[in-house]
Amino acid sequence: MKKTAWAFPLVVLVLYLVLWVLTPDRTGRAVMAAAHVLGQVSFPLLLAFVMMLLLNRFVTPAHATRFLGRKSGVLGVLLSSAAGIVSMGPVYAWYPFLASLREKGASDFHLANFLGQRAVKPVLLPLMIAYFGWRFSLVFSIVSAFIAILAATVVGGLSRAGTGNENLPPF
């Protein structure tokens, strides 16, 4: 690991120590708030790292390319859509996992589709229906799913611009 990798945490630690001397009560509250945030993100990040470990152990680049590559077709669209819909937790916890999939051959279309489909949450549908009614909830969910695919198509197309792969479909 580079020595510069520790520069940011060390600078933050030094700043906290200086602030602790100047204003201990406010710094104590800031440390407690930071600990609270750390507590909230620890489990989702741990889950993402475990998934990355399993991904690196059992999924080869050939698997990722076959199921989530540019030529995966409708199966890849359905797979990335379903995975995005059932995914839970904060989106930033999924970034390392998605980056690992990308390195193994998953297309930008499927990564963008996964991220976009996270807006569709069947487990929250009853609550949404209670607040907004079944018609709004159903229309919103369906439109969100289609818009996620449209956005993924744009992302997939634009991320390939200038790479020589412009004639391939984004998925």
Report what the structure shows.
By secondary structure, the chain is an all-alpha fold. It folds into 2 domains: 1-58; 60-171, no CATH class. It has 8 helices and no strands. The chain has helices at 7-22, 24-58, 61-68, 73-86, 95-104, 108-117, 125-132, 134-159. The protein is extended, with a radius of gyration of 21 Å. The mean pLDDT is 84.
Quickly describe the structure:
The protein is mainly α and 171 residues long. It has 8 helices and no strands.
* Arithmetic mean pLDDT: 84
What is the H/E order?
HHHHHHHH
Structural class: mainly alpha
- Give the total of domains: 2
Major sheet summary line: none
Head-to-tail CA distance between termini: 36 Å
Low-confidence stretches: none
Strand content: under 5%
Instruction: Specify the overall morphology.
Output: extended
Number of strands: 0
